[in-house]
Amino acid sequence: MPSEPVAITPDLTLADLEISVGQLEQQLGALLSIDNDGTNSLFTFDEEHDPEDDQLVALRAVPTDSIAAPAGFDMVCEGDAFVGGELVHLAAFRAVAGVVTGGAPQPSPPPAAPSGDMLTQALRIAMRFNEIGTDTPYKLSFAGKAKSGGSFGFTQGDLASGPSIVKDTFADVLAAAGIADNNLTGRLSVHVTRNPLSDAETAQVNAALNSETGQRLVDAMDEAIFAEARENLDQCITAAAGGSPPRTIEPVAQIYMLLWTNMTGPPTKLLDWLGGLDVTMERTVSAPGPMVGVADIENYLLASEFFTRNPRNFPHLRQSVAAGAAVLNIEPPAIDTQPPPAPAGIGSGPPAIGPIRLSPLPGIDLRATLAIRQLVQIVGEASRSLPANFRIVVTSTLRVGSRVAGTGGISRHATGEAIDVQIIDPQTGPIPNKGEDHTGFYRQVAIAAFHANEQVFPERRGRLAWGGNFTTGPANGPRDLMHFDYGGDRGRFGKLADMARDELRIV
């Protein structure tokens, strides 16, 4: 018997959407259909049948005209659902019965080479996430940086520094809503650090942007600006192909380039580099090899004046790229090279380069509370600092009613402010997460998580604690290496902030 369609928020990444659907399969039964209502994704489940052999579905973005199930998998269903706020055609695959045995981790279908439509979706989602995250495009925003004024749309068309279509669109939106300009455009078309309009004026303009006609006009502007960004990317691809030797740009590296040229304008020095020249910015970057990958473009961007002076912005760029890469089911490869040394000061440099390698144990809810979602994000960012093929597994999040072992105090898990993790060595398996940190990897992850927390969630500064600085219960208990919480930087063995300062002094 089919369940009632379950609505899932449209802003999830593909990985988070897959986790949510998997959890619903465990509760409601096997997935039957994928759909949307124009606002949320809709998933229907078979309440009379559980997933065969407990093998949960894998979700993949696929072209609409040619869907082929990978070897060892059957396609369950397909449909349009939201990923990162954009409609994407998804297919659900389930491993063929008997392929996975002995409790081994379920494999994922291998990614196919992205079609043009899929790459376009990935680029659009990455740009949207980079500019507005999961916010609505149909309202005024104020970056307060450089020459920026008021902006709107998922491309954040800027009235002060953007192309002429931004002012034209804004005028059309006001006219369609019957709003007299009264120097609204003039006040929004100069550099401002805060909203120059009154509350009443702001509400009136936002209502016009969010109206049916306003949304249509804003969408048209966004597509025009996005098309210009694609032209900039095409210049990069052409320059790379015309070099000696010819170069190919990997899809995820293309996402970086689109976001970068959308920030800086038509490429110039980037074209020289892609064509085969060494270029000098804050430092000299050698020309890339025949395949331009994530390591190459990150090394280039980290040498730019902008990211050298604003390294705290780099984690957000990575997150935006990851939102697009998830649509392609492509994960950036592990990278051994490190960015240039960070300037003095805590959290002043980006975390080590590499892919995020974090996943939950079955049944663990990574989105139970805001605090848990944020802890998962920063520890995931910290997983980049581990050696290639190491990964982090989240073993516990929200545990209603849980108490601290040996003391009886209320646990941070009970209030949804803590997670427990275990680091997995690809050669030897799980690394013990209680007691002495013999490998040093838990300390390394804790320091990287501290920096990520300082950068990504400045409102949480001073709140992150690591269990390696205290014990699992009484004073003589083992160190709680697995534990991270937002109960305040503390511990009888030290504080994370001091550990991070010591690490910088060592470097």
Write the layout of secondary structure elements.
Blueprint (H helix, E strand, L loop, with lengths): L5 E3 L5 H15 L1 E7 L4 E6 L11 E4 L11 E11 L2 E10 L20 H17 L8 E2 L7 E3 L4 E2 L5 H13 L7 H5 L10 H11 L2 H30 L6 E2 L1 H14 L4 H7 L3 E2 L3 E2 L5 E2 L1 H9 L2 H5 L4 H15 L29 E3 L9 H13 L8 E6 L21 E8 L3 E2 L10 H16 L8 E2 L16 E3 L10 H11 L1
Parallel strand pairs: 10-13, 14-15
Antiparallel strand pairs: 1-3, 2-3, 4-6, 5-6, 7-8, 8-9, 11-12, 15-16, 16-17, 16-19, 18-19
Helix pairs in contact: 2-7, 2-11, 3-6, 6-7, 6-8, 7-9, 7-11, 12-13, 13-14
Description of the structure:
This protein is 36% helix and 16% strand. The protein is α+β, with helices and mostly antiparallel strands and 507 residues long. Strands 14, 15, 16, 17, 18 and 19 form a six-stranded mixed sheet that branches. The chain has a three-stranded antiparallel sheet with strand order 1-3-2, covered by helices on one side. It has a three-stranded antiparallel sheet with strand order 4-6-5, sandwiched between helices. Helix 3 runs antiparallel to helix 6 and helix 7 crosses helix 11. The longest helix is centred in the middle third of the chain and has 30 residues. It is globular and about 70 Å long. 40% of the residues are buried.
In a few lines, what is going on in this structure?
This protein is of the alpha+beta class. It has helices spanning 14-28, 116-132, 164-176, 184-188, 199-209, 212-241, 251-264, 269-275, 294-302, 305-309, 314-328, 370-382, 441-456, 496-506; strands at residues 6-8, 30-36, 41-46, 58-61, 73-83, 86-95, 141-142, 150-152, 157-158, 248-249, 279-280, 284-285, 291-292, 358-360, 391-396, 418-425, 429-430, 465-466, 483-485. Helices cover 36% and strands 16% of the residues.
